[in-house]
Amino acid sequence: MQPDPDNVGGYLISARSFDEYRAMFALADSDLSGSVLDCPGGASSFTACANQAGASAIAADPVYARPRRSLAALATAEVERGSAHTVAGADRYVWDFYGDPGGHARVRSASAEAFSRDLIAHPARYVPASLPTLPFPSGQFDLVLSSHFLFTYADRLDLEFHRAALRELHRVARREVRVFPLLEQGGRPVPELLSGLAAFGIPHRIQRVGYEFQRGGNEMLVLDATQ
Ligand SMILES: C[S@@+](CC[C@H](N)C(=O)[O-])C[C@H]1O[C@@H](n2cnc3c(N)ncnc32)[C@H](O)[C@@H]1O
Asked: Which of 1, 60, 123, 195 can bridge 39 by disulfide, Cβ–Cβ 3.0-4.6 Å?
């Protein structure tokens, strides 16, 4: 399937920071010493900062098929859209990590700016690609991270899509896949999905992490890719 940059309507191109990723995915320094895929990367600064921290990080997202400079402008506009959405529903969130909505907006703006700079400086790090098909050989990445796409949009991505996407993320991983958060919108039951993974012989576990922004969103799904 070819990535379609115009078919991202409704998906916020969000810009979570490296520190948010570290917290969401309980990342240790040792997790950042090998190759890492962030899919979808959106306008996150994770890839920029992970490379600075010594990892060999790549991001994949269909939106990267857009012209690079228009993507930088989109990242800024999407921070404003995301912040407005967050402020409108402020009581649905736990503010400990950011302090308040202003702190949240500052983190995301700085992240979008770091993303935009890295996109121009290192365009090869940002690969246009759409789940459930990724243009990478099997086992290319030690660690694969997936934030705020699977489960988050379960109202429009069905069970089959989730199964296929998780199998694809697992295919390109050598050690582990981590998916955050496990909040379901649209009522898709995680147990049904996990039993499908078991049937494909993919060992997995659910792990509590020390980050919670969306209330109840404090767990990640970990797929073991070593077997
Ligand atoms: C909410 S953002 C998450 C971005 C980043 N992981 C973060 O946490 O800031 C969701 C992303 O999913 C991307 N997306 C939409 N359809 C996709 C697909 N079929 N495969 C991979 N990514 C997709 C969108 O372009 C968007 O950047």
From this structure: 60
